[in-house]
Every structure is written in structure tokens, then in C-alpha cells.
Amino acid sequence: MLTIYNDRHALHHGKLEMFRGELVPCFEVPARADYVLQELQQRRLGPIEEPSAFDDAAIARVHAQRYLDFLSGAWDEWVALDPANATRDALPSYWPIRTFRSDVLPASFPARMGLFSYDAGTPLTSGTWTAARAGACCALTAAARVLQGDRAAFALTRPPGHHAGVDFFGGYCFLNNAAIAAQSLRDAGVERVAVLDIDYHHGNGTQAIFYERADVQFTSLHGDPHTEYPYYLGYADERGAGEGLGFNHNLPLARGSGFAQWREALATALRGIAAFKPGALVVSLGLDTFAGDPIAGFTLATADYLRVGEDLSRAGLPTVFVFEGGYAVAEVGANAVNVLEGFMQ
Ligand code: SP5
Ligand code: ZN
């Protein structure tokens, strides 16, 4: 399988994230992608190519312009607040929740930081915009190659994307790579696109982006938001709205669920995808369903990921894989490549 990779991902390197009242070392680190790259090379999964250049228009098909303007200038604004900020990452401290206005654009940088985010676990660093933008180009290139006839392609990107919405970051995500890929497939003439999100965490950003649309179906398997991040979305009764009613499918599973249960949910998801008759599939490929993941709660084993790839392959669809979460750094490579290898067999 073709992989699209760019080493600028490493320019996004957060130091600390807020967790239960203290700043702890980031889980989402450059080594994650390095391990996947190494495993792809060792196992000779296929060619590894650089992304093509895309202008901001392809990204603006999904994200609000005022959010992109904010993100692209955020680091410089942060350092302008205080030159000492150059040694620490930017984290939000204020959020405009219920009863506040979200149509205002305060001059204060910390105020806009909160306007465009929803957690304090997602540090913005000097290279975040460059890395995220290069990542989106990886996803767009992978989608373009699948359109040109590759059966599948893998966008090896970070930071991840599925928690990012039209105008917000969070959950380690800034630009929604999977949504950008799906929209690009639509724009290239694929009438119906399915997005399947198998990261441990509900893909709240992707869901929100396509919630009122019937042309992009969203299906997610994830830890039950009653107990698992992102808590405020991802429940089974979220079925879509307006024209999109019936095109959103959440399959929450209890923390502690194992492969047998998970695989049954995957079969349910794949039946729904087949009924939609999409022209292409985008897979948000999170590997934090792994038993050894430090921040998640399912118990999949490395060998299970081969079966995951086989199951996905049987959908018989042109498929764009987009790398999302997975924080057991030493194993994330074997787990990711097992999915891709299982798919190609
Ligand atoms: C893309 C993705 O997987 N984002 C996940 C963001 C999760 N952020 C919340 C992390 C909560 C950390 N819990 C640590 C538990 C340590 N025992
Ligand atoms: Zn995740």
C-alpha cells in the first residue's frame, strides 16, 4: 500500500498537557509517527511518498476561514504577548460555554484561544500550523491517489485530526485530516463517501462537520462517552440532523471491551456502510484500542489488527486510511501496519 508521509509532522512537538490539575508530558509525540514509518519500511509495505502541494482552499472546504486565520498566526501572537512564551507552549484557560457569545472575536489572544478550542490537553507549539497543514496535504494526496486508481493509500500524519471541528481544536487535533480527505473525494465527484472512525475516542469533530449531510456518512466505534473522552458527544442516539438524519452512526462500547465485542460492532458498522453504497471509504485509523495504550480502555492485541484490516478489506471500497491516535509508542507501528497489511492480503 502507498503511504504519504512528510517529516514536518515533527515540528508539532507539545511538551505538556493539562490532566487532572497538573501538567503532564504529552502523549501525542513525534515518535509515534517515526515508529510507524520504521515499521512500514522494515516490512516493505509499499512506496512511501511525499505529499503534493495544495492551497488553503481544500482545507477551507472543511474549516472556517476565521479559524484558519487564527491557527496560522497563533504562535506569533502567543510570543508577542510575552517573549518568554517562546519557551513554553500555548494552552487555553477560558472557554465561552453556554450563555456566552461565540460570534464575537475578542482582541485578546487567550480569549480567542478558548473560543477556538474545547480542552486544555492540546498544546499549540511553534510548529503546529506547519505540521498540521503538511498533515492535511498528506490526507489530500492519499485521497487523490485513491481517486487515480490506487485501491488504498495511507496518510501517515500527525497531529491527528478527528476531534477538530469546523472552527475548533482539541483532543490533540487541529485540522480534521479525515474530513478534509472525505470532502476532497466529494469535490472530485464521488457522490457518497463513508467515514469510519475506529480510534478509541469518538470522532466528535468529524461527526459535527458532516452531521447535517446525507452525502457523507459517519460511523464511529469508540469508548462509551459516559465514561470516556470526549464525554459530550458520541452517544448512540446521535443519528444526524436535517438532511443528514440517518447518516450518523455511533457504536459506543464499555471501557474494558475486548476484540470479540469490538469486532461485532465493526461488522455492524460495515453493514451500515454497505447499505449506504459509498464510492469511497475514509478510515480514521486510531490504534489506541490496543490493550497497552496508556490513555484508553479497550484490550485489542497486536495480532487482532490483522483481522481488522481483513474485515475492512471485505467492504471492497477504495479506501483512504488516515492516522489518528495510538499512544503505546513502541507498539503503534506494528499495530498500524498490521491493519494495512491485513487489508492488502
Ligand atoms: C486523537 C486522540 O486519540 N485524542 C485523544 C485525546 C484524549 N485527551 C484526553 C486524555 C486523557 C488522558 N487520560 C490519561 C489516563 C492516564 N491513566
Ligand atoms: Zn483516540
TrEMBL record:
Source organism of this protein record: Variovorax ginsengisoli
Cofactor (UniProt): Zn(2+)
Family: Belongs to the histone deacetylase family.
UniProt KW keywords: Hydrolase, Metal-binding, Zinc
Gene3D superfamilies noted in UniProt: Histone deacetylase domain
InterPro entries: HDACs, His_deacetylse_dom, His_deacetylse_dom_sf, Ureohydrolase_dom_sf
UniProt domain Histone deacetylase: residue ranges: 28-341
Protein name: Histone deacetylase family protein
UniProt-listed Pfam families: Hist_deacetyl
Domain of life: Bacteria
